[in-house]
Amino acid sequence: MSEKCGRTMICSRCVMDDTDTSIVFTQTGCSNCDQALLDLENWKRNEPDSNDFKEYVDQFRFNKNEFDFVIGLSGGIDSSYLLHILKKTNLRIQAIHVDAGWNSKIATSNIFKMTERLKIPLKTIVIPWEPMRKLQIAYLKSGVINQDVPQDHLFTTRVKKFAAQMNVKYIASGWNYSSESILPTSWSYSPRDGKQIKHIAHMYGVTKNDLSKLEIMTQLSQYYNFNLRKKIKIIQPLNYLNYNRDVAKELLTNEYNWQDYGGKHEESRWTKFYQGVWLPKRWGIDKRKAHLSSQIISGQIDRQKALNMLNEPILNELQSEQEFNFIANKLQINQSELKDLMFASKISHESLKGDHLIRKIRNHL
Amino acid sequence: MKRVIPAITFFNESVFVTLQFQKRLDGGDLLNSIRFFSESDADELIVSFPRYRNSESNSLLLKSVIETCFVPLNIAGVVRDMNSATELFGLGLDKVSITLTSKNINLMKEISSRYGSQAITAIVKIDRTLDLTTTLLADQLLESGAGEVLFIDIAKDGSGSGLDLPFLEKFKSLSDKMPVLLRGGCSGYAELGSVLNLNWIDGIVAASMFSCTADRQSILLNYEREMWSNHDL
User: Fold this and answer.
1) Which end of chain A is more exposed for a tag (fewer CB within 10 A), N or C?
2) Which pTM does this prediction carry?
3) Option in B29, B214, B218 nearest A123 (CB)
4) Does residue A118 sit in helix, strand or coil?
């Protein structure tokens, strides 16, 4: 069921609206929250000290590798809390952090404080900045919607590569139904598609030499190297816990002097710009609607509170301008050039070269 | 107030964590590191440019460095004449570091008289084979007009094995003449906390400690004031 809110139609149960161009309003709510409710049946809301969670965790123990898990840390709340919980279970953890050049100071500090306190071995991988910068500019020029692809692709592939090198099968991810069950496909595109990344790089002047330094991987290559050869599995322990972000935040602050950086995923300065300025101004999309809808469906927040939050802009005009200028400065392009890109023509990911066949097969399975 | 000063070394395209001042770990984008220590409210920041060559792109780089840093900034390895000093101070640079040699003394004097002694840090590189008397050193330091002296223990750079205090104590008496800073081998926040208690030391400069994980195998910028300041210094 939907209701009108200004010029948009908004779901009556969650807060997704027709800025999701593929939304279908149903008797119960909308396509997004209908699906989310089904998915949530997979969420086992155990307490960390429960036997059920202990049993779940025990299956990863006592293998003959040096570590039970590799965990990717961003300095953000989900991965930080996950680290805290897994350490408490006495699992042997190797942490990894991939720095693509956009870490906020707070995120870096959170990673440092937690790994030092918990004495967790940490490997960091610094992505070469010059090639990264050029790839990000290529992506801006391409006109596609998902500007998080370069960053996200590198995070996942580097973490998997690392796990493969260390002969560790399990990667613990902070992904959770609690706050992430809803993300419409019209707002996104898979960062796994290495073929498209290479294509966009080539289209917009990233040299082969620079691109090779980034080590982009096609889906086939990832499947062969990680799934087939090393049988790497990503697991999501937060989906076996009664995970509540506010509770987690308070615990982390008290125990580790963990600091909050603001909105979801703002541990990356790029994502702060992308979700706070680029998506709203260029595409009319407020990604908070997806996060908040997930939290409404999982009972973490009530709908009116979510609507109130959405009434405030993600960033005010001054903050938007500051983030805009920061990005232009860091990418070494003129502010006017970035502005032109913001209003340049748009193109869908699907219409560009990419691993489309593989994606369709995956979606089918 | 004692100072804790992170040091960054930039070689051509990238920041590097060094071992005895040779490149060891690639630390990535220079402006990123500067931004981090600025936002961490570091007491000061020292950026060294070994093998610096004058060029238009390097001038632009220095301009960006100065604009990006909003804590007191000290640049080493760049200023070799009054022209470059004037240009950099004009852009807003706070301090320059220059190695104390007979060749450099006149330049140091000139910078000090034009910009003030606080604008210049005299670098003394530790050489355990040389038997330099501290009285001679004191005379040279005073003549140079430098506002402070930074002793750099090259052999210890990047080791994290602890400052060689028994050796460095030879220079204790210089603290009567001007503030003394030490650099070379600081092992971590615990050592930092205890060394800062020594009254002849005005501050510690540390590189790998602030750019790496505790085992120094990975890059992780850090500067956590609460981890060394348990009491007022």
Assistant:
1) C
2) 0.93
3) B218
4) helix
